[in-house]
Specification:
alpha/beta; Rossmann fold
């Protein structure tokens, strides 16, 4: 599993800098990561045979701010691997303290809070610059992320930027990317469960030397790009929860529009002229 492998590779890459007891803990985590996802520091200490202090230091040695951040990543890996049937079964008792609306709102609020606390703001201007400088921009999303890709492509087209939308990630998409000029930019939006074809498309674009931007959930995501916008998209259902990713996409659109206010105002003015001339909107 790609997400699991990324976490294990991180542990292995830092093994030389770990103490003997931390290496013992690393082996336990690698072999039992699904249980670790729901273990307290005390639980993990007892099950692995190391001290609680070792558990805390282990998380820090891997580059996490603390055990809570480490465990959140392990939980993300576990959830990323869940099938739709598993997600539906696990969500069966979630409505005991409220209905489905309350359950969905609660999880989306968790995602938004995590976004507010952990998002790297510097990635927005970097992604905006890559898109603004491109001779062509191809936005790729498939299945549940097709709607996010469509939203971004619509906004870029409204700003009169050279945007194209791809909601298919098969061989025809590869053909499209193969024909792109060298100064093109490819934006791929993908979340667990990661589609192999999206990963392949992004790798293909990078292999061609094209500028790439990814909107995904974690540095451990198999979607690797020149600029990555990381946003939590954990779900309490078998359907995708994309409230927080939509916020990031809208923030990116705003960043792009404000990078050149004169061009943005001109594009919006021309759109309004067209809308008025054809009676696009019904009077309220």
């Amino acid at each position: 599993m790609a997400s699991e492998a990324a976490l294990i590779e991180r542990i292995k890459s830092r093994a030389e800098g770990l103490s003997p007891t931390q290496r013992r803990l690393a082996r336990h985590v690698a072999d039992n990561y699904q249980a670790v996802a729901f273990s307290t520091v005390s639980d993990l200490s007892r099950l692995s045979g190391v001290s609680e202090a070792t558990v805390v230091r282990f998380a820090a040695a891997l580059g996490f701010s603390g055990y809570a951040a480490f465990q959140k990543e392990v939980r993300r890996v576990v959830r990323a691997d869940l099938k739709g049937t598993d997600r539906f079964t696990l969500s069966g008792g979630r409505f005991s303290k409220g209905g489905p609306l309350e359950a969905v709102i609660g999880k989306e609020l968790e995602n938004l809070l995590h976004l507010s606390e952990s998002f790297d703001r510097s990635t927005l201007p970097a992604a905006s610059a890559a898109i603004r400088a491109a001779s062509q921009v191809v936005i790729v999303g498939a299945r549940s992320t097709a709607a996010l890709a469509t939203h971004l492509a619509f906004a870029l087209e409204k700003l009169r930027l050279p945007a194209q939308l791809l909601t298919s990630s098969g061989s025809d998409a590869l053909d499209r990317l193969a024909r792109l000029p060298a100064r093109a930019c490819v934006v791929v939006i993908g979340f667990p469960r990661y589609l192999r074809e999206l990963v392949r498309l992004l790798d293909f674009a990078r292999g061609r030397g094209l500028k790439t931007v990814a909107v995904t959930d974690s540095p451990f995501s198999p979607l690797k790009a020149d600029v990555s916008l990381f946003v939590s998209a954990e779900a309490s259902s078998f359907v995708a929860f994309h409230g927080a990713p939509l916020v990031v996409v809208n923030a990116l659109i705003d960043e792009i529009s404000r990078a050149n206010p004169k061009a943005t105002l001109e594009a919006l003015r021309r759109f309004e002229e067209l809308a008025e001339s054809v009676g696009l909107f019904h009077p309220s």
